[in-house]
Amino acid sequence: MSERSVTWTRPIQDAIRVDRSKLALVPATRCALGIAIPLVVGDLSDHLLVGVGGAIGALTAGMASLQGTYRSRVKIMAFAAAAFAASAFVGATVGRLEGPDIAVTAVWGITAGLLVMFGEASGVVGLQAVIGLVVFSQFSFSPEQAALNALWALCGGTIQIVLVAVTWPLQRFPVERAMSSDAYRLLAAHLRSLASDPSDLLDPGILDKLRSALVETQPWGDRAAAAAYQALADEAERIRLEVAGIARARARLAHASTIATPTEKARALDAASDLEEAIAASADLLAGVAAALRDGRSTIAHSEDRERYRAAIEHLRSLAEFAEPSTRATLTHAVEGLTALAGQLRSVTQLTAVAAGDQPGAPKTTESTAGQPVRSRSQPSPLAGTSGGRLELVRANLTRTSEVFRHALRVGVTLAVAVAISHLFPLGHGYWLPMTVMIVLKPDFAATLSRGLGRSVGTLLGAGLVTLLLSALAPSPAGLIVLTVTLYAASVAVLRANYVIYSVGIASLVVVLLAFTGSPAPSLAADRAFYTLLGAALALAAYAAWPTWERTHVVDRLADLVEIDGRYGAALLHAWADPAGVDRAALQRLRLAARLARSNAEASVDRWLSEPVGRKPASPNALDAETTQGILAAVRRYVWGALVLHGQLPSTGPVRPDLHRLGEEVEEAMAAVVVALRTGSAPTRYPPLRSTQVALAAHLSGAFVQTTTDPTPEVVDMVVVSETDLMVNAVDTLAHLVGVGPRSKADS
User: Fold this and answer.
1) Which residues are registered as beta bridge partners of 742?
2) Angle in degrees, CA 165, 67, 352, rounded to 5
């Protein structure tokens, strides 16, 4: 593996970048109301400290409310509120007993670390449980007092849950609108990027996030609108595939212009320009769809985009009339693709109107179904899956080689050390140390480093300055309430947009909440700064002592990617060999599995590149950064060709037996690459793909030349020639990068 230093620029860039698309203004308003209610009620009833206890519970449940969608969101909040309250009771009971406090915190940390195996929402529940334990461990209560304080915290969490539930009827599909709008906005941006990079691929996670959000629809929502959002997700998938074919047609025209006669070159360039215009018009229309979905509007101003699109198609048709056969086939294919895309765009605009409540031609809601909950598949809960499946997952992760198990032990041991240190130092608010450790320590190095820097900077700025400010101003309870609500709203709003700003807000908020018990001493600012820096250092030291480096897994992620793409590409070629006998559902499942594998591999490479370099290679089959990036680039080219073939797969057509052989050879070649990746050697050679593809191209091109002047039936053959050429080139590149050589034709 080539030497490289730790990438410090990325955490710094993350610290200063605010992703405005991730600002959560509406949830922030709701959460702020939830924390304001117990504070105001407590102040008016002269039980302000009881209100503070409720506000702390509301803070916890409010943070958990950013997970899930509808019923699942309520379940997650209930788990988080209950876990926090129970942990607060335990912490307040044993917190002053050093031995039990250390032991209980270790158990809580290990449990919270294991919960990440069930997903992000479960990790949030575990985090809140540990925070409840360590925060309330600073108090020394009798069991009765501890139970009463836990009850107030649970009541505050319940307020947040009620606010979430009662807002359902007041908003029209808020989650579906937001996620669909984001997906179409990013899809429009993807279309625009094709002008500068024809091989660009849409982020594999975008449509997956939309699908995940639509697993559970709004309770008591209109069924026609719910179905419209589901259909919008389907159309986004179809548009992505159709545009892939159109962009590839543009690339073929651009290539043809470099080798054609002057007249044909001008025609090809003119046609490529038309395709660019059509794609740009589509992007503008989809951007309008995204805006309409975001605002809940039913109308989209797209007449100009539609006219640009229509003009491009008409001009392409006129160019095809006089083009040479090969160019004419590409133009015909492009026109067919644009015609199909036009239908999808029309469908999207109609579905947008249905989703907004304007339902011409949409299924009507009958009296027997109006106002009833929409039936939908259930969203995974914080502990998702069947009981048997959960137990199997737990057993699989209770091994020393499990990343989750290593993370859990790392968290538990580090928290125990942090609590022990906090008992040793005669400084105020020692809970700040284990709380920092729990927040900073993540399963991967990059996130731990980023959280450590963000938390340190945020606490130094927030807790330090606010402590000094409150000490100097000594605001009234009303002033503290206003400040608390404001800081909480700001923290929730920026949580996913910028972690450093969130850390500033949340650290300041904790200081303000504690100020209800008395004006904080200026010396506490230094104590909190010390504990925060020490906690971040402990988390990083724990990771260095027993790391889970991504470099030990990145090769396996790449091998998984190549393996599933080999199966997907082979299945596509077999499907084209006999379109009538295709199991399209199985083919779709393979495509989704390949997309997930690409998302996992790209995320793994991204984490690996953020890690420091070890003195020794992670494993005998370790790759350098350049080779790894080359593998991802080659896979993207392969996927581009596969997506075009998937999108253009006909429902019927002639049998093409040569494609069966090419499919088998592609799968065998990709399997050889997988072996080389997993073992670090190349014991096998791969089939002569290029020879097979050239023979296939010659056969299909020969059949094409013998046809009449109407090339439409043979256009699909030209698509096969073009995309198999791209896929074979990508496989050859992958084999070259891992050192696998081709067999000679004679050996085959």
Assistant:
1) 686
2) 75
- The candidate with the shortest Cα–Cα distance to 535, out of 433, 454, 456, is 433
DSSP three-state, residue 742: strand
* Rounded Cα–Cα distance for residues 428 and 521 (Å): 10
Which tokens in the block code for residue 540? 């990083």
C-alpha span between 404 and 410 (Å, rounded): 10
Alpha carbon separation from 554 to 77, 548, 601, 678, 732 (Å, rounded) = 34, 12, 7, 10, 21
Name which of 444, 430, 416 is nearest 551 in CA terms. 444
> In whole angstroms, what is the distance from residue 218 CA to residue 573 CA?
40
Instruction: Give the distance from CA 594 to its chain's centroid.
Output: 15
DSSP-derived 3-state class of residue 686: strand
Cβ atoms of residues 381 and 76 within 8 Å: yes
The rounded distance, in Å, linking the Cα atoms of 536 and 432 is: 11
pLDDT of the residue at 188? 92
Q: What is the predicted pLDDT for the residue at 388?
A: 59
Reading phi first (left if > 0) and then psi (alpha if -120 to 50, else beta), residue 652 is in beta
Determine contact, residues 463/525, Cβ cutoff 8 Å.
Answer: yes
pLDDT recorded at residue 133: 94
**Residues 443 and 136: beta-carbon distance below 8 Å:** no
The predicted pLDDT at position 702 comes to 60
188 exposure class (CB count in 10 Å sphere: 0-12, 13-18, 19+): buried
Backbone angles phi, psi at 400, to 5 degrees: -65, -25
What structural domains does the chain harbor?
19-170+407-545 (no CATH), 174-355 (1.20.1410), 550-738 (1.20.58.220)
Q: What angle do CA 520, 522, 524 make, to 5 degrees?
A: 70
Of 721, 28, 738, 741, the C-alpha closest to 326 is 721
682: which 2 tokens? 């190349």
Distance CA 406, CA 558 (A): 22
Amino acid 359: pLDDT? 53
Low-confidence stretches of the chain (pLDDT < 50) are 1-6, 360-384, 615-617, 704-713
pTM for this entry: 0.77
Cβ-Cβ contacts under 8 Å for 375 (sequence gap 6 or more) = none
Which residues does residue 686 pair with via DSSP β-bridges, in sequence order?
Answer: 742
DSSP secondary structure letter of residue 359: -
Q: What is the pLDDT of residues 254-307, one digit of tens each?
A: 777 777 678 778 888 888 888 888 888 999 999 999 999 988 887 887 778 888
Q: Give me the pLDDT at residue 6, please.
A: 44
What local confidence, expressed as pLDDT, does residue 24 receive? 86
Burial class from Cβ neighbours inside 10 Å (0-12, 13-18, 19+) for residue 337 reads buried
CB atoms within 10 A of CB 219: 15
CA distance linking residue 168 with residue 73, whole number of Å: 12
Beta carbons of 648 and 541 less than 8 angstroms apart? no
- Nearest-angstrom CA–CA distance, 148 and 125: 21
CA 136 to each of CA 48, 79, 101, 418, 432: distance values in angstroms, whole numbers, following the listed order: 18, 18, 11, 15, 11
Other beta carbons less than 10 A from residue 120's beta carbon: 12
Minimal CA–CA distance to 141: which of 82, 88, 80, 85?
88
Question: Which residue is associated with the tokens 């073009």?
Answer: 722
